[in-house]
Amino acid sequence: MSIVVIGVNHRTGPLALLERVSVTVESLPKAIASLTSRVNIREAVVLSTCNRTEVYAVAERFHGAYADIRDFFCELGGLTPDELHPHLYSQHDDAAVSHLFEVAAGLDSAVLGETEILGQVRHAWEFSQSEGGARATLNLLFRHALETGKRARTETGISRSTTSVSHAAVEMATERLGTLKGRRVLVVGAGEMGEGVAVALVAAGAADITVTNRTEARAEQLAARINGRVVPFHALGDTIASVDVLLTCTGSGSVVIDHDLVHAARGGIDTPLLVVDIAVPRDVDGAVAQLDGVTLLDLDDLRDWAAKGIEKRAAEADSVRIIVGEEVERFSIDVTARQAAPLVAQLHEHAETIRVAELERFASRLAGLEPAQRSAVESLTRGIIAKLLHHPSVRLKEDVGTPSGERNAAAVHDLFNLS
After folding, report:
1. Tetrapyrrole biosynthesis glutamyl-tRNA reductase dimerisation domain spans which residues (predicted)?
2. Residues near 211 by Cβ (< 8 Å), separated by ≥ 6?
3. Which of 69, 152, 330, 396 has minimal Cβ neighbours within 10 Å of its Cβ?
4. For the domain with range 165-308, which CATH number is right: 1.20.120.140, 2.60.40.2250, 3.40.50.720, 3.40.50.200?
5. Which CATH number fits domain 2-161: 3.40.430.10, 3.10.270.10, 1.10.645.10, 3.30.460.30?
6. What are the sequence ranges of the domains in the chain?
């Protein structure tokens, strides 16, 4: 049994491909069910962000799991294996663990050290737990990943300065325009990304900020926080006509702002419009960039811009890699430790709890027994438990530290519902 990660990210695939294999929150249950129903996959977590879509899995056989997950991506994006293969990466065992820890620490992000990814890792794990996709092995792995991400940000300066994609988008817009002071800004989307954008805009000196969102109540909450205004989503075109900067991050999964909408809104207007689209899939039709006076930037532009800051944080990244190495070793020790004595003790404790509960359930029927008879029942039931668990206990101890031991330990946790 192996831990594997297979995916596509901003380094291996173009934005157009990332859009095709992105997984929305609404489609996550189906994705997890699809993965865990495949013969070679025991557990699965899907991590889909603006920078990546990855599947972390506990695999019975690596090559079989690779084929299963590759097929999942092909079905997801309507791709052939030949189209997908050049952009797909895979790691297993310690390399897969190290990869996840680097992701959680912000080393694998386009904006080096960004903090949003830690919450995204947590949400992906918790969602998979709720759907039955993450159990003993991946639960332990993702707990360690979150601890690694927190440690990296506490002990190093990896997250100083630009700390999120939202923050980076505002910085990129500021660099393009020189300043955001006095600019009229429209934020489309009031989710986590939209909130990050709005807060960063205020920090950058923008004072004239309008927010719109399909759910108007969320737009109102965000606007109140930044002392901005709200416009109904159906008034999007009219609002585009009156702004200098448009930042969009709805997560709708399809184009929200097309060529005709912007063309109609900006007809006869001479002032330039800067559009920054950080959604995956993109919110803005690429044809908008052909309009006079309109500059359209997306995540590809943001990644190029953010790459400039990577060299400045090279020393911090090296420090984080040392932490990742230490945490991978700690995870390996924990995996080994949980296979032997603690698990055996937990298994016997679980069985003893059931034995005692059953005796209490039949207490009224056993009330007439003599003390010697009662003692015999106690001895008999304890003996049955001991004999039933003897061989599994021996095997768990003998196989500790081996692939078979890891597989058996995970099975015991799952079958007996041990924490």
Report:
1. 321-418
2. 186, 187, 190, 194, 198, 219, 222, 223, 226, 228, 229, 230, 231
3. 330
4. 3.40.50.720
5. 3.30.460.30
6. 2-161, 165-308, 337-372+382-415
Taking phi over 0 as left and psi of -120 to 50 as alpha, with beta for the rest, 186 belongs to: beta
CATH topology identical between 2-161 and 165-308: no
**How many Å apart are CA 373 and CA 177, to the nearest integer?**
89
Residue spans of the chain under pLDDT 70:
161-163, 309-312, 337, 339-340, 419
Q: What pLDDT does residue 339 have?
A: 64
Would you state the pLDDT for residue 410?
A: 84
Q: For position 379, what pLDDT does the model report?
A: 82
pLDDT at 336: 73
